[in-house]
Amino acid sequence: MDFIGAYSPDNLMFLVDGFWITLKVAAISIVLSFIIGGILGILRYADIPVVSKIVAGMIEVIRNLPLLLIIFFVYFALPEIGIKFSIEASAIIALTVFESAMLAEIIRSGLNSVPKGQIEAGRSSGLSYIQTLWHIVLPQGIKKMVPPIVSQFISLLKDTSLATVIALPDLMHNAQVLNAQSINYIVPIFILVALMYFVVNYILSIVTRRLELKAS
Amino acid sequence: MLDFTILSENFDVFLEGFKNTLYVSFLALIGSFILGTILAIFRIAPIKPLNWIGTIYVEFIRNIPLLIILFFIFTGLPVFEIRLSGFVAGTLALMIYTAAFIAEAIRAGILSVPKGQMEAARSSGLTYTQAMVHVILPQAIKIVIPPLGNQFINLVKNSSVLTIVAAGELMYQGDLISSRTFVTFDVYIFVAVFYLIITLPLSLGVNRLEKRLALSN
After folding, report:
1. Interface residues from chain A to B (CB-CB < 8 Å)
2. What is the pTM assigned to this prediction?
3. What ipTM was reported for this prediction?
4. Dihedral sign of CA atoms B68, B74, B79, B84 in order
5. Which residues cross the membrane (chain B) (predicted)?
6. Hey, what CATH class is A3-215 in?
7. Which of A62, A119, A130, B131 has a Cα at 20 to 30 A from A174?
């Protein structure tokens, strides 16, 4: 094992570059999936005749598929029908599709935690259904949603490593590149990379716990 | 439209992958249930060093990607002259990873059993271990079943990662077919359907159990 060679300045910078891509892809995906998941979650919650059923079906199907399959699908299968994205865009799209379904469920259960009486009260004081959702239900539900959303972000950071299979130059990918240089690098690089993921995710999980305590 | 001849001509291969996915998931579930239970007990046992071991394991493994564990076992262990097949390495990685989540689910279940139960068991002469096995765990299991179901769904989905080490599961077989026939789109759709055959009924079952449990409380 060659710790000194493995942790050379060049190698460390290379890993930091990869980590930056991981964080960037994860951050863009979480923002996009928060928006899409929010819309889907509200549509499922709102009990609109046909629409809510269709949305519920979509969410259930996507939630129950492996993320890896979605990544492969976006990158390898969509070009077959003429839709082609770059590696980074494919990773972001696949992650967004998957995480939107996850976030939709989180948002829906947050909304469900608000007593139904609140809607009735809002409606009977003259607000429209949409106004009631926006001004009464959402602000109360959001407190319950934040902790699971942060922990979903932890999953997302971990899941971004799967995009290594389509050669996204993320932390996992760059680690594999270094590992291929020398058998003596493998263990030191794995230890360092695992610690990098761990530190960021552990801090986030402490944040989640704080928020959970505050919410309860 | 979907090309169903791809499905019928390669049905054996799909089925092989389907069976392997189920097989890997079951093996990993059993392994991670045993390991997870031990870790959960470590975390709540009144012995400090065990608490530390349990906590470090759970916190560390939960916060790193499954892929790192898999690569470490598959490409890191050979550095120490330990060589495992893709299938064994993959099953081990899934087991090690899932055990951390199962440990948390079981710990939450155990903590939900009122403290008085332990005190009553201990004061009627049972040892800590006896009280745990005969009094606390049987009551905890009811609360633990829905999250365990969710973990099994995650296991089935995560087992797709084993395609990277050529473990012969569903995703891998799908890739084989698509690289042989040059049809990707349709093959992935069929692969998706095979995954859903396992995960959707499980997910519906878990939902129903959770609702029933919420009602009974």
Report:
1. 1, 60-61, 63-69, 72-73, 76-78, 80-81, 154, 158-159, 161-162, 164-165, 172, 176, 179, 183-184, 186-187, 190, 193-194, 197-198, 201-202, 205
2. 0.91
3. 0.89
4. positive
5. 20-42, 63-80, 86-106, 126-145, 187-206
6. mainly alpha
7. A62
